[in-house]
Amino acid sequence: SGHQSLTLIRCRRNTGATQASLLVTCSDNHAPPTDLDHSSRRHESECLPRNNLFENLFCGESRTAAAIPVSSEVSEVAVGRLSARMVFADAGAFGAEGGGELKKNRFLSTTREVEDLNQYWYSNRTITHMALDVEEVCAAEGTRAAFLSTPSVYFSLSKEVRARSWCFDLDTQWHKEPGYVCYNFQTPVDFPGAAELRGTFDMVIIDPPFITREVWEKYAETARFLLRPGGGGHVMASTIQENAPFMRELLGVEPQVFQPSIPTLVYQYALYASYESKNLGVKNPEIPDDD
Predict the structure, then answer these.
(1) One GO molecular function term (predicted)?
(2) I want to staple 123 with a disulfide (CB 3.0 to 4.6 A). Which of 166, 240, 246, 261 is the partner?
């Protein structure tokens, strides 16, 4: 069925024909941080440089998206590209300049989506609602948030909360960011500083580059590894609505009223949370009502 095909891929607006699926890996020789204070340590990551992203695909195994069934509603497959071309939708599509009640979003104005990494940025309004939730959950001194493949939200936080947050991502363009950790979901608990970071976070925000259960199981393993023991950790995530049953099973999250706007994605995502959220409990005016 169309829904079943949607669980396999993420599809980009205005792309070409079927593309090959790519995943890059990080090198293994990372020294863990000596402490958890951003002010006293910076990760000089040894992840693969961006011009060598394609030399290590799935740990040496190249996989393609050939023969994946696509519904009539999703006519293009874009789980990655073989070229190193970077794309960026017009800033207006993301509301990057703000206007009205929204402030200008510097990340959206300056950061391109990398198709090879299957990056899709949320709109300014969506980022604002997600970031407000993080700011409220992590308002108390000492609370910490981990952002798994969600750099747009991480870089949109206030300075105070961002200083207590960490950005786990494969994209090496942020390797000089104090809170950056080179993260490859294929090795869910094997990343720089894993031993020191284990069980130290109050909140995890997740948006994987792929939407299959297999990938979500790995991200869920990372989330459980990072959250403080004893339960009560906050989880925010985004994926398709059809994934709700296994999202509930893996992470204890439920779909929220607020639906995210992702301008370059051809189908609608849902936001999930494991807690009651005021910011995600309202409708997003960017998303039209269903007929």
Answers:
(1) protein-lysine N-methyltransferase activity
(2) 261
Could you give the 3-state DSSP secondary structure of residue 185?
coil
DSSP-H helix ranges across the chain = 2-6, 91-94, 106-110, 124-137, 151-154, 159-162, 194-197, 213-226, 244-251
- Specify the pairing of strand 63-64 against strand 20-21: antiparallel
Distance CA 54, CA 68 (A): 22
Q: Which fold has domain 2-273?
A: Rossmann fold (3.40.50)
CA nearest neighbour of 11 among 76, 72, 86, 68: 76
**Distance, CA of 210 to CA of 195 (rounded, Å):** 26
Q: Round the average pLDDT of the chain to a whole number and report it.
A: 75
Residue 32 CB coordination number (10 Å): 12
Burial of 95 (0-12, 13-18, 19+ CB in 10 A): buried
Residue 236 region, left (φ>0) first, then alpha (ψ -120 to 50), else beta?
beta
- Reported as a single tens digit per residue, the pLDDT across 226-236 is 999 987 899 99
Longest dimension (CA), the chain: 55
C-alpha closest to that of 203 among 282, 160, 283, 148: 148
**CA pair distance 45, 31, nearest whole angstrom:** 9
- Check whether 98 has a pLDDT greater than 90: no
Burial of 50 (0-12, 13-18, 19+ CB in 10 A): middle
Task: Please tell me the distance from the alpha carbon of residue 260 to that of residue 94, in angstroms, as a whole number.
Answer: 11
> Looking at the predicted structure, is the pLDDT value of residue 237 above 90?
yes
